[in-house]
Amino acid sequence: MAAAVMERVGTALQAGDFSAVVGLLDEAELCSPSASALEEGWPAALHLLGHIYNGSLPDARMLYKRLPEAVKAEPQVKAAWQLLQYAWQGSGKGVWRALRGHPWAGHCRVLVEALAERAEDAVAAALGRGWRRAGDGSGALEVVPPALARGELDSLASLEQLSEYMMQLE
């Protein structure tokens, strides 16, 4: 891959324009004169992480399917694939484990830190909208049940009792 593309990717990462990374890599892949662009030192893990960051999980899956087996065997690509699988399944706990459980290096580390920051912001926003951390220590979030207002029914038994009362009034 051309050094110019990686230079532009590095510039985008330094500027905090994380969503531009995947566009640069997609363009470089499509414009490559070589049919084996994904084999020649391609930053596959970074490309996968870029799709995950942008929320384009189907595109990330298709990219992974196009990768040669030798590239899929690289540790960072394996870790990015695991992260993608957890994100695809909606497993927040798995996503955190995948983000924090691998020693990310180079440009991938920068993008993973941005993903983690985005996830932390989402958790903080959820906590501000009436969610709370589960009491089991797992770090999972649960909805805080609203407090019952005076006169509200809190169970099926109360509803049945009210129905019987209303029938007696009729």
Automatic annotation (TrEMBL):
InterPro entries: CSN8_PSD8_EIF3K. Pfam families: CSN8_PSD8_EIF3K (PF10075). Residues 43-129 form the CSN8/PSMD8/EIF3K domain. This is CSN8/PSMD8/EIF3K domain-containing protein. It comes from Volvox carteri f. nagariensis.
